[in-house]
Design a protein that fits this description.
Shape: elongated
Radius of gyration: 30 Å
Strand order of the largest sheet: 1-2
Strand content: 5-15%
Structural class: mainly alpha
Order of helices and strands: HHHHEEHHHEEH
Number of strands: 4
Largest sheet: 2 strands, antiparallel
Number of domains: 3
CATH class of the largest domain: Mainly Alpha
CATH topology of the largest domain: Arc Repressor Mutant, subunit A
Number of helices: 8
Length: 217
């Protein structure tokens, strides 16, 4: 009787070990399959994005996939739409797609316009490859000095002598304006593109246009 019981238990234990071994093998295969599926999905997503971008540039994109740029008034808003539609894009890709979609640039330097339109944009980040990436959640960043009234006062005080970014930064800080060298540089470059207040007399040096200086003396 005891021998029969021991024989039965040994047999069952053998079945259990076999089942456990088979289960472990299946788990290993599942982990391997999951890894393979993840790699294939990543490739598939990349290929779909490439096809979608190609269709946008060649005019073969389907209507339901087409970004809605009608009624868009600003370059920044148009870039937001494209980044949400197509994913990561660099300046050249944004320019090409915007032009294909019929967006009218207000400057002959669209690449620079895209750069300044997205400066300190809290809704995007820049990848290691230099592409813009939509993140959706607005991140609070230091304000850009887009209307440099303090800059005008600074140049007027120094009789409109050309000044470098560090000199301007130091001067406007004394006037109570707090900003960074990068934001000040971006603001002055924005003025060069879209305003008639400042001009760059040589690399790294700025001053007011003469009529602006005369009007503010």
């Amino acid at each position: 009787m005891e021998a029969n019981r021991n024989g039965f238990e040994s047999q069952v234990l053998g079945y259990i070990k076999d089942a456990e071994r088979e289960y472990q093998e299946l788990e290993d295969r599942q982990a391997q399959l999951n890894s393979q599926m993840a790699a294939v999905k990543e490739t598939l997503d990349t290929l779909r994005k490439a096809l979608q971008f190609h269709r946008a540039r060649t005019g073969k994109i389907e209507r339901e996939e087409e970004p809605k740029l009608s009624g868009v008034k600003t370059l920044r808003e148009a870039c937001h739409i494209l980044l949400q539609q197509y994913g990561d894009m660099d300046k050249q890709q944004l320019k090409d797609t915007l032009e294909h979609e019929g967006f009218q640039f207000a400057t002959k330097r669209p690449i620079s316009a895209i750069h300044f339109a997205l400066v300190n944009d809290g809704y995007i980040t820049i990848t290691e490859e230099g592409s813009y990436q939509w993140i959706g959640n607005k991140v609070q960043r230091p304000p850009v000095l887009t209307l440099p009234k303090a800059t005008i006062r600074f140049f007027v005080k120094r009789s409109n002598a050309p000044a470098s970014i560090p000199e301007v930064l130091d001067g406007i800080k004394k006037l109570g304006v707090r900003t960074t060298a990068k934001d000040l540089h971006d603001a002055l470059e924005m003025e060069l593109m879209y305003s008639d207040k400042t001009e760059r007399v040589k690399e790294g040096k700025y001053h007011l246009k003469q009529d602006v200086f005369e009007a503010n003396k």
